[in-house]
Design a protein that fits this description.
Blueprint (H helix, E strand, L loop, with lengths): L6 H16 L1 H7 L4 E6 L2 E7 L3 H24 L4 E7 L6 H5 L11 H5 L3 H4 L17 H12 L8 E5 L5 H15 L5 E5 H13 L4 H12 L3 E5 L8 H16 L3 E6 L11 H8 L2 E5 L4 H14 L6 H10 L4 H17 L6 H10 L10 H11 L4 H5 L5 H17 L4 H7 L5 H17 L1 H16 L2
Parallel strand pairs: 2-3, 4-7, 4-8, 5-6, 6-7
Antiparallel strand pairs: 1-2
Helix pairs in contact: 1-2, 1-3, 7-8, 9-10, 13-14, 13-15, 14-16, 15-16, 17-19, 17-22, 19-21, 20-21, 21-22
């Protein structure tokens, strides 16, 4: 979650929605007396005045908590549930409310005790190896990650994890950081998205003659013990930031410091990525994460059940696991919707309730596959435009995107070759046949091409 929506700022947004929903009298009785403390492990900690605590908490459990979860999800896209702490009335100062932290009267949260450095490093304390469910699609990546965490800078440096959206790349990468931070409390670790790195770099440049800003940027990134960078495909076509990362990469690896990266595709498939960066990445090791099978998805649900202290029948978990088959992120979203139903709406943990939430998220309904949908997904993947794919331009990345889109259109729709040709800029059927045959041969011979085609087809079907 961004800093802008953390703690009190998120509370203010939700409180406004609750005021509109509950009305002035109920709001004054059940919301206004509360004090936001902080957000930890998807729990929003709220202090409740002791003399009114039971009445307020009971009202929240009966009516308000479900609304809170809904409004928090609308603001953040995350499942955040309220958790209450009874306190002596009015013991929290205005200054503490302006900058909510755990006061001296409140015990530190568990994650702060275990991995105090994680907050500074930008790591999510929930992303650990213990919480990462191993399956056939990720066991190799998980084994390498464990080795990296236990011997950073010694083997598998750099380590790049690639795969589709929502499959656990970020979780696994941050598990490396959390493990290393726990074993080495004084280690200098930084997690950043590729966009964070770009923004930090450009901000240092914008300060112009202030050379201290540039020096601080370089010191921040080049003096680390471990650098974790998410979504490096974001740097496609951005040579200046690639140049800076190349220098950062060299500085860290020369000092035997660990670099871990994620990408939604294999480095050689990232358009306009400098060859020397690709070469550096190949010095280490790459591993991919595939979509979890049914057995793994059910295991993930059981793990979530244990983390949230719920008792859900196996046949219910099995139904959700079988129905939500695209990625881990969507699976977790389905689980939390189910949790909200049984925790805050007093619905039974049954097959019928599960079917209700599955209908709500359209888990059993696939997007109608059209040529427009295919063109949009493929163009986005290759960072091109649909208009360019339909044009006569022959740039290599563009030609590959066009051929892949033609192949997927031929295999996923009932369109004839002339119809496909018309949809791709009025090309003749022989050009369409040539493009299809070329990709078909690559799919048969190259495992990575086959995986990419399958991933794109899945995104097209699932409407992601």
């Amino acid at each position: 979650m961004s800093e802008e929506l953390s703690s009190k700022k998120l509370w203010d947004k939700i409180s406004f929605s609750l005021f509109q929903d509950l009305g002035a009298i109920s709001f004054a009785s059940f919301v206004d007396p509360l004090t936001p403390v902080g957000i930890e492990n998807n729990r929003f900690i709220i202090q409740v005045p002791g003399e009114f605590a039971d009445k307020i908490i009971n009202q929240w459990n009966n009516e308000i908590s479900m609304k809170f979860v809904e409004y928090a999800n609308n603001e953040t896209g995350e499942f955040i549930r309220p958790e209450f702490q009874k306190t002596a009335a009015n013991h929290t100062s205005e200054s503490e409310q302006a900058n909510p932290t755990l006061s001296s009267q409140t015990a530190p949260l568990e994650s702060e005790q275990h991995i105090p450095f994680s907050q500074d490093a930008g790591l999510n304390p929930d992303f650990t190896f213990d919480h990462f469910v191993i399956g056939s699609g990720n066991e190799n990546a998980r084994a390498i990650a464990q080795a990296v965490a236990e011997g950073p800078g010694k083997v598998y440096n750099p380590y790049l994890i690639y795969g589709g959206v929502g499959l656990g790349k970020t979780h696994l990468m941050q598990a490396i950081g959390n493990k290393y931070a726990k074993d080495n409390p004084n280690a200098r670790i930084k997690y950043a998205t590729a966009e964070d790195f770009l923004n930090d770099f450009t901000n240092s440049l914008r300060k112009g003659g202030d050379t201290n800003a540039t020096a601080l940027f370089k010191k921040t990134y080049r003096s680390l013990d471990m650098l974790l960078v998410d979504d490096i495909q974001f740097w496609a076509g951005k040579p200046q930031v690639q140049e800076e990362f190349f220098n950062t990469f060299n500085a860290l690896t020369k000092a035997n410091k660990q670099i871990v990266m994620t990408s939604d595709r294999y480095p050689n498939d990232i358009p306009d990525l400098q060859d020397r960066l690709k070469s550096r990445f190949e010095q280490g090791i790459t591993s991919d994460i595939q979509k979890p099978d049914v057995q793994t998805r059910v295991a993930i649900l059981r793990n979530l059940q244990d983390q949230n202290d719920l008792d859900i029948p196996n046949d219910v978990l099995q139904l959700i696991g079988e129905s939500v088959d695209d990625n881990v992120r969507t699976l977790e979203g389905a689980f939390h919707k189910f949790e909200a139903k049984i925790r805050y709406m007093n619905k039974p943990a049954t097959i019928e309730t599960a079917k209700t939430i599955l209908d709500e998220i359209n888990a059993n309904k696939k997007t109608v596959v059209t040529v427009d949908r295919i063109q949009q997904v493929v163009a986005a993947y290759y960072m091109q435009t649909v208009d360019d794919m339909k044009s006569s331009r022959r740039q290599s990345d563009l030609v590959m995107a066009r051929h892949v889109a033609i192949y997927l259109t031929r295999t996923m729709t009932d369109m004839s070759l002339p119809q496909i040709g018309h949809a791709f800029g009025d090309r003749d059927h022989s050009s369409i046949s040539h493009a299809f045959t070329k990709i078909e041969e690559q799919v048969e011979k190259e495992a990575r091409m086959k995986e990419m085609i399958q991933a794109l087809a899945e995104d097209i079907r699932n409407g992601q």
